[in-house]
Every structure is written in structure tokens, then in C-alpha cells.
Specification:
The chain has 527 residues and is mostly beta strands. Helices cover 15% and strands 44% of the residues.
């Protein structure tokens, strides 16, 4: 009967417990959920946050961090980036590791690593800390150094003494003397071992050339400037060797043409600004850093290209509108080729007209236009580096041509006929800004009258490029000439007056001898 009563009481307690459990958690059992979550495959590494340096001493430090899930604790650390390791395999979210046996007054690199129980691992960024220096207090009554002998009393920098044979400047010799005196007072073996390690480390580091960072050369280029930046692991000067691509000679002992930089300023973050460069030009360069001990590092050869001068359009205008054509003129700041895209605003038909020549002064004539029609034109230019600029649109209307043609680029070239004494050939060329018929007028001498002139036949075809050949000119004679041109609407243009001197026949050696003989014996000439 007692056993039955005990069983009933136990069953009642269990039922009440489950009832309380479901009323409190509502069926959301965290234990069940955790167990279910473990059965699922965990592929997400722990997230590392809140990294801190704690309890930093001359020989150790404590590093702490947190993770969003339980993970082990591991720290990579070293004075260089080839890290050492300290690890705690216990899984936790709040991590704290002591890094022992460090050197005083030394910078250490470190990063923390967290691995959860599923093997997912995450690494933090690189960090750095510096241990404090060990303070060595001088005794209140230091033992005075021994009185130097006559042989020893040479002074720092002039011979051997307490500086161990150092022959540097006065300030360094005094510092060495003081250091040796302080070392004599250190009797603790651990302290001496620490000092020895520090000296070896300093000597090893200072005997190595500076290391140029992996992303050694960040170059910011302009049209005629370049700013070159890099970093080193120790203080050194900042120099850059340069040469244009055409001047660079990789087979030479020194493949570069000149150097820029700061030879006497010792820094770890370097920046050299180079000015006076050529636009749109490729340059080879090499960065160099030398320490005060003369240890130097050089980067590999690299290149950059300065920016080109972007084309700009100036003074865009319709210089002449005609019945079936129009001339558009403008200038550019650098040589460019050009295309005009023009549209009939009545029909929206677009055509192109252009010139492939790279020039700065542009003039393009649009032909086969409709009379009394509105047009819109856009100028597109491109420099030799294929950089483009587009103008704002200009509009114009084809109208009855009331302007005469413009005559330009008048040029003459005269030669003697071979084997003759009084025959020359003269070629006259000129241009008009629209198709025209032209006629050549000329006369001998500078003071000829308006009626005393000759002319060549008028041209038969309308053209903008004109050439005339004259064979009637005498050698060694001054001529005056001018041009008259008519466009298709009979607008007349007359050029200014030009003068020219035809060439004289060169005298042979025999001619000169005879002339000289006649000058000497003039009385022998026939009367």
C-alpha cells in the first residue's frame, strides 16, 4: 500500500513538472533546439570582434577578443609577419590569451584566429603592439670611469677608448661610453640576456636593407605630373629613377635618364612628385630607398602613362552660308581630326562631312544642301590619342549667296628653261573658299599703268584649288600680278597686288672669265 502511494505521488510530480515546462517555454525547448541545430551541418565560421591589447608589459601581453559562437583561441604573433603561435583549445565566446617571453621596446605583429567545433576557421586583420622599454635606473653614486692615459686621451672619434674602438662623431662616442658604463652595472643574468637579445636584434635589423612594400608604387598621374608613393619597413630616403619609353635602355648599366626625390630625408612613408613631364607619354620608373648605413633597396621596373590634353573646340561659327552649301570653321587646342554631323531640320535626314587631317585650324564646307532650308550641325573632334570632344549644335539657313569668294594661299614658283637664256616658267597657285572661276592679270615693273597689263584666259571649271602656268616672263625681271575670281552667283573678288622677281641665269666660269677680261682690256672692244 505504501509503495502504491509513493508511485502515485512520483507520477503526480512528473506530470506537474511537464505541465510547468510547457506553460513556461511554450514548447520552445532551448535544449531541444540546440540539439537539433548541432545535427545540422555548420558551415559558417565564427565572427571575430572587439580585439583588445591588455596588460602590456616589457616581456608579455594579454590579447582578448569575442566571437559570436563558441570557438577555440589562437594568436599568431612575431616581430615580422612570419607569425609564431599561442593557442588555447577550449571553446568559448570570450577569448583571452597571454603572449609570454616577448622582447622589451619591440613592435610585434599579431592576428587572432578562431575555429568552432565544426572546423570553420576565421582570421582577423593584422594588428601591431609595442612592448614598453625596460627602465634601467642609474645608481645614485656611479663609479667614475678610470682616468685615461696619455695614449687613451685621444678623444672620441680619434682613436680607441671606452667606446670599444668606435671612430664616429663626438655625440655617438659619448653615447657608447655611457652605454658601456651602464652595462657594467647590470649583474642580473636575465637582464644581461635580455640586453644581448635586444642588441642582436637591432644589429640584425639595421644590417638589412629596407623592404619596399608589396604595393610598392602607387602612381597618381596628371597631364605633366606624377606622384609616386611607396612604404618601407625602416627609415630610408626617397628616390625615383625615370626615363621615357623611347629613352629607356634595359641593357645599360643604368637604364634610366634622371632621378627625382629626397636623398637626405629618412622616412618610412615615401612620396615623390615629378613635374615637367610630357602629356600622353609612357615613362619607365624604379623606386629606390637607402638607409643612413648605405643599405639600399630598389623596386623592379614599372611604367605609367601621363594623361593627354583633352581636345577643346573654340570659335565655332558658320563663316559662309550659300544657296547649296555652307562653310563651318573653328579651332582646337591640340591637333585633331574632325567630322561634322549635319541634319536637315525639315526632313530630319542626317549626313556626315569630315577631314582626317590632324590640325588645329579647321574649315569644312558642306555641299549639296537645299536652298532656303534650316540645318543643324554638330562638330566632333578627336585627338591623336583617340580622345573625343563634341560641340554644341549650331544652326544655319541656306540663303542666296551675296558674298564674293575669298582668295587665299597665293604662291609662286619660277624656274629657268634648261639651255636657254631668256625663258622662264612660273607656276602660280591659290585657293578660294568656294568653287570659282578665276583669271590671272600681270604686268612688268612696279609702276605700270592700269591699262598696261596682260592676262591669261579665264578658267573654264569652277574649283576651289587653282593653278596657272606662265611662260612669258623674262628672267631677272620684276612683275606685278593680281587675281580676279567669280563664284556661281557672279559675286566678284579681286586679290591684293603681288610682286615677284623671276630668277636670273647663273653665269658659267667661262662667262665670268670673259667678263673679267673685258673689264680689264676694255680698250680692245670693237667700237
Amino acid at each position: 500500500m505504501v509503495n502504491l502511494l509513493f508511485f502515485v505521488i512520483t507520477l503526480l510530480i512528473v506530470c506537474l513538472s511537464y505541465a510547468y515546462y510547457f506553460l513556461y517555454y511554450g514548447g520552445n525547448d532551448p535544449i531541444i533546439k540546440t540539439a537539433a541545430a548541432v545535427t545540422e551541418e555548420d558551415k559558417k565560421p565564427p565572427q571575430i570582434t572587439d580585439i583588445k591589447i591588455e596588460e602590456l608589459t616589457a616581456t608579455s601581453t594579454t590579447i582578448s577578443w569575442t566571437t559570436d559562437e563558441a570557438a577555440d583561441s589562437l594568436v599568431n604573433y612575431n616581430i615580422r609577419r612570419d607569425y609564431g603561435i599561442t593557442r588555447d583549445p577550449a571553446l568559448t565566446k570570450a577569448h583571452r590569451l597571454v603572449v609570454p617571453e616577448l622582447l622589451s621596446d619591440q613592435s610585434y605583429y599579431f592576428r587572432v584566429i578562431a575555429t568552432d567545433k565544426s572546423g570553420n576557421q576565421n582570421l582577423s586583420n593584422d594588428y601591431i603592439f609595442t612592448t614598453p622599454a625596460v627602465k634601467i635606473e642609474e645608481p645614485e653614486t656611479p663609479t667614475p670611469p678610470p682616468t685615461p692615459t696619455v695614449e687613451e686621451n685621444k678623444g672620441p672619434g680619434k682613436g680607441e677608448g671606452e667606446g670599444g674602438g668606435y671612430k664616429g662623431d663626438m655625440k655617438q662616442a659619448e653615447l657608447i661610453q655611457k652605454t658601456i658604463s651602464m652595462l657594467d652595472q647590470v649583474a642580473d643574468e636575465e637582464g644581461l640576456s635580455l640586453i644581448e637579445s635586444k642588441i642582436q636584434q637591432e644589429a640584425q635589423e639595421k644590417a638589412q636593407p629596407p623592404v619596399i612594400s608589396g604595393d610598392f608604387a602607387k602612381v597618381e598621374v596628371g597631364i605633366d605630373t606624377a606622384v609616386i608613393k611607396w612604404k618601407t619597413d625602416k627609415e630610408a630616403n626617397s628616390m625615383v629613377a625615370l626615363a621615357t619609353d623611347a629613352e629607356y635602355n634595359p641593357d645599360a648599366a643604368d637604364p634610366y635618364r634622371w632621378n627625382e626625390g629626397e636623398p637626405n630625408e629618412m622616412v618610412t612613408t615615401h612620396e615623390v612628385t615629378v613635374i615637367g613631364l610630357k602629356p600622353a607619354t609612357t615613362y619607365h620608373y624604379q623606386v629606390m630607398s637607402r638607409t643612413t648605413l648605405g643599405l639600399e633597396s630598389k623596386s623592379e621596373d614599372n611604367t605609367f602613362r601621363t594623361k593627354s590634353i583633352l581636345p577643346e573646340i573654340y570659335n565655332l561659327n558658320v563663316s559662309k552660308a550659300e544657296e547649296d552649301s555652307a562653310t563651318i570653321e573653328w579651332t582646337t587646342n591640340v591637333p585633331c581630326s574632325a567630322v561634322i554631323e549635319y541634319t536637315d531640320l525639315n526632313t530630319n535626314v542626317t549626313k556626315l562631312e569630315g577631314s582626317p587631317m590632324f590640325v588645329t585650324s579647321h574649315s569644312i564646307r558642306l555641299k549639296d544642301l537645299k536652298f532656303d532650308t534650316y540645318y543643324s550641325a554638330i562638330v566632333k573632334v578627336e585627338n591623336e590619342q583617340a580622345e573625343k570632344t563634341v560641340s554644341n549644335p549650331v544652326t544655319f539657313t541656306t540663303i542666296k549667296d551675296m558674298l564674293p569668294p575669298t582668295i587665299s594661299k597665293v604662291n609662286t614658283e619660277s624656274t629657268l628653261y634648261p639651255g636657254t637664256e631668256n625663258k622662264t616658267q612660273t607656276i602660280i597657285s591659290w585657293r578660294t573658299d568656294e568653287p570659282s572661276l578665276c583669271q590671272f592679270f600681270y604686268g612688268q615693273g612696279l609702276s605700270m599703268s592700269k591699262s598696261d597689263y596682260s592676262t591669261l584666259p579665264k578658267e573654264e571649271d569652277y574649283t576651289g584649288n587653282h593653278v596657272q602656268v606662265v611662260t612669258a616672263f623674262q628672267p631677272a625681271t620684276v612683275y606685278k600680278f593680281w587675281l580676279e575670281c567669280y563664284d556661281k552667283t557672279l559675286n566678284r573678288a579681286k586679290s591684293e597686288d603681288y610682286t615677284m622677281l623671276t630668277p636670273a641665269r647663273e653665269e658659267s666660269i667661262l662667262d665670268l672669265i670673259i667678263k673679267n677680261f673685258e673689264g680689264t682690256f676694255g680698250w680692245l672692244k670693237k667700237k
